[in-house]
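Before relying on records like the one below, remember that each one covers exactly one chain. Contacts with other chains, cofactors or solvent are not represented anywhere in the record.
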Amino acid sequence: MTQLIPLDKRSKKARREYHAKQRGSWHGVNPITRTVQSRKIYDRARVKQADHRDLGIY
């Protein structure tokens, strides 16, 4: 049975190994492409969609 040693008492190398195991992988997904555009920015397409919804076209 392995003894549990508090993280702050482990060596720097052991802490790095522990944190490396905790981190996940993006599996090829680019996080930069997953940004959400701010709703405060003017977007012509969004304005058109809102107008069409108000008119009942969609």
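The chain has a mean pLDDT of 87.
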